[in-house]
Design goal:
The chain is an alpha/beta fold. It folds into 3 domains: 17-116 and 305-326, NadA-like (Rossmann fold, 3-Layer(aba) Sandwich); 120-205 and 332-351, Rossmann fold (3-Layer(aba) Sandwich); 208-286, NadA-like (Rossmann fold, 3-Layer(aba) Sandwich). Helices cover 42% and strands 13% of the residues. It is built from 15 helices and 12 strands. The protein has helices at residues 28-44, 57-65, 73-82, 94-103, 119-122, 126-135, 149-153, 164-173, 184-194, 213-222, 236-239, 248-257, 271-278, 310-319, 328-351; strands at 47-52, 69-71, 87-91, 108-110, 140-144, 157-159, 178-181, 198-200, 227-230, 244-245, 262-266, 283-286. The strands form 3 sheets. Strands 2-1-3-4 form a 4-stranded parallel sheet, sandwiched between helices. It has a 4-stranded parallel sheet with strand order 6-5-7-8. Strand 7 (178-181), helix 9 and strand 8 (198-200) form a beta-alpha-beta unit. The radius of gyration is 20 Å and the shape is globular. Bound molecules: iron/sulfur cluster. The site of iron/sulfur cluster has 13 residues, from helix 5. Iron/sulfur cluster binds next to helix 5.
C-alpha cells in the first residue's frame, strides 16, 4: 500500500486516560531523611539509581551524587550494561525499565512505581500492532524506544529521536519502505526531512503534542533574541519554528554550546534542571502549551514521570518489589533490534565526525 493512501486509526489517549500530574512535595527535614535513607539502602542493596532527565531535580541530584546516571532512555540502559551493581533502580517510565532489563538480563531492575507508563507505549498495544505489521509484510518495521518489550520484539529496528533521521535515510538507501511507530509527530518530521515511504502509527506524546504554534509565534515576537529548541515529538507547525530540533541530550548540549543567551524550549520542563546545571548563565523560557489561560492535560510535565519520587524510591529499595520481568523469548527477540541500533550508532560515530548524538 502507498503511504499517501493510508489512513490509520487514532491511537492517542483521551484526556480521561491521562492521570493528573502530581509532583511530590516534601519539607526539608523529610527530604533530608529520605535522601540519607536512600543513600544507605543503595549501598546495602548493591543498587545503582538511573534517572531520566524528566524526573524531579531531587532524583537527578541523588543519581548524580551516588554514582548513578541521568540521561535519555537508551543511554540509561547502556549505562546499566557498564555499571557493576546487581540491581538497577530505574526512575523513569516503564519502557525504560524494560529496555534496561532487555539489555541487562542478569540484573534485577526495579522501579519506584510500575504504574509509570507512557502515552506512546499505551497507544501501541502489541496485538493491534502485530496485526498491522502482518498486513504490510513488505515493510521494514521501525519502532521508537517508547514502546513495550513485546512491540520491540515485533520490530526490525528500534530507534531514538537522536538517530532517527540517519537511520531512516540509511534504510531508504537500501530501498526499504517502512512502518514507523508509535509517534505520529516524530514520524511526520522524519518523513518530511527524508521523503521516505513510511506508514505512520497514529500515537502521540501527551506532553509534546500540547505545544502550540500560535503561542510560540507570539512568544518569539516578545523575545526576538531567543533561540527556539524543539523536541521532535512536537507537532510539525511547532517544529517549523525551531532553530534546532533534537533529542533531550541534543537540547541540553545546544543550551550549553550555542552562543545565544536566551532559549525558548519545547520539551518536558523536567529537562530544565539539567540545562540550568549545565548553563547557569542562560535564560530558559518554556514554550507555550494549551494551559496558557485554559486547561492543559500534562502542563509540559509528564504525569507518569512525576510518579517517581523519593518516598516510593526509598520504599522500593526497602521492600525490593516492583521488579521488571519480561518473558525470556520476548526479551531475547527485543534485544536484537536494540543491539542493531547500538551497532549502527557506533558505526556512524566512526563515519560521521562529531556526530555523537545517538
Ligand atoms: S514525556 Fe511523553 S514520551 Fe516521554 S514518557 Fe511522558 S508521555 Fe511518554
Amino acid at each position: 500500500m502507498n503511504a499517501a493512501a493510508f489512513v490509520m486509526k487514532d491511537h492517542s489517549l483521551t484526556p480521561a486516560q491521562v492521570p493528573p500530574t502530581v509532583v511530590e512535595t516534601l519539607d526539608s527535614a523529610e527530604k533530608a531523611a529520605l535522601v540519607a535513607r536512600i543513600q544507605r539502602l543503595l549501598k546495602e542493596r548493591d543498587a545503582t539509581l538511573v534517572a531520566h532527565y524528566y524526573t524531579s531535580p531531587e532524583l537527578q541530584e541523588l543519581a548524580d551524587a551516588t554514582g548513578g546516571y541521568v540521561s535519555d532512555s537508551l543511554d540509561m540502559a547502556r549505562f546499566g550494561t557498564e555499571c557493576r551493581s546487581g540491581t538497577l533502580i530505574v526512575a523513569g517510565v516503564r519502557f525504560m525499565g524494560e529496555t534496561a532489563k532487555i539489555l541487562n538480563p542478569e540484573k534485577r531492575v526495579l522501579m519506584p512505581d510500575l504504574g509509570a507508563e507512557c502515552s506512546l507505549d499505551l497507544g501501541c498495544p502489541i496485538d493491534e500492532f502485530a496485526a498491522f505489521c502482518d498486513q504490510h509484510p513488505d515493510r521494514t518495521v521501525v519502532v521508537y524506544a517508547n514502546t513495550s518489550a513485546a512491540v520491540k520484539a515485533r520490530s526490525d529496528w528500534v530507534v531514538t529521536s537522536g538517530i532517527a533521521l540517519d537511520l531512516v535515510k540509511h534504510l531508504a538507501e537500501k530501498g526499504e519502505k517502512l512502518i514507523w511507530a508509535p509517534d505520529r509527530h516524530l514520524g511526520a518530521y522524519v518523513q518530511q526531512e527524508t521523503g521516505v515511504d513510511m506508514l505512520l502509527w497514529n500515537g502521540a506524546c501527551v506532553v509534546h503534542e500540547a505545544f502550540k504554534a500560535d503561542g510560540l509565534r507570539q512568544l518569539r515576537a516578545e523575545h526576538p533574541d531567543a533561540q527556539v529548541l524543539v523536541h521532535p515529538e512536537s507537532p510539525l507547525d511547532v517544529i517549523a519554528q525551531a532553530d534546532l530540533v533534537g533529542s533531550t541530550t541534543a537540547l541540553v548540549k545546544a543550551v550549553t554550546e550555542l552562543p545565544a543567551k536566551k532559549f525558548i524550549i519545547a520539551t518536558d520542563n523536567g529537562l530544565f534542571h539539567k540545562m540550568k546545571l549545565a548553563a547557569p548563565d542562560k535564560i530558559l523560557l518554556e514554550a507555550p502549551i494549551v494551559g496558557k489561560g485554559a486547561t492543559c492535560v500534562s502542563c509540559a510535565h509528564c504525569p507518569w514521570m512525576a510518579m517517581n519520587g523519593l518516598r516510593n524510591l526509598a520504599r522500593v529499595l526497602e521492600v525490593g518489589d516492583h521488579e521488571i520481568r519480561i518473558d525470556e523469548a520476548i526479551r531475547e527477540r527485543a534485544a536484537l533490534p536494540i543491539r542493531r541500533l547500538l551497532d549502527f550508532a557506533k558505526q556512524r560515530r566512526q563515519v560521521v565526525l562529531g556526530n555523537n548524538d545517538a
